[in-house]
Amino acid sequence: MSTLPRPSTIFLAAITTLVAVLLYSPLFVPIVSSFFIISHGNVDWSSPTLSTYVALAGNHDILAALRTTLVVGVCTVILSVVSGTLLALYYHGRHSGRSILQFIIFLPFLMPPIISGLALLIFFREIGLERSLLTVVIGHTVFVLAIVYRTVLMRLQSMSRTLVEASYDLGANGWQTFWRIILPNLSSAMVGGAILAFALSFDETMITILVTGTQSTLPVRLWAMMRLGFSPDINALVALILMFTVLLCVLAARFLIPRQMATERN
Amino acid sequence: MSQNTDLLTLRSVSKSYGTVPVLHDIDLSIRDGEFLTVLGPSGSGKTTVLRLIGGLEPLTAGEIRLDGQDISRMPINKRPFNTVFQDYALFPHMTVSGNVGYGLSVRHIKRKEIARRVAEALELVQLGRFAERFPAQLSGGQRQRVALARALICQPRLILLDEPLAALDLELRRQMQEFLKSIQREIKTTFLFVTHDQEEAIGMADRICVMQAGHIRQLGTPHELYYKPNCEFVARFFGENNLVAGKLGPVQGEQRPIETALGRLVCSISDQPHLKTAPDGASAFAAFRPEALRLADANDGDNRFSGTIADLAFAGSSTVATIMAGADNAAQRLRLRMPSRIDGSILKSGETVSLSFAPHEGHLVLA
Ligand SMILES: Nc1ncnc2c1ncn2[C@@H]1O[C@H](COP(=O)(O)OP(=O)(O)O)[C@@H](O)[C@H]1O
Ligand SMILES: [Mg+2]
Question: What is the maximal distance between C-alpha atoms in chain B?
Answer without folding.
Answer: 78
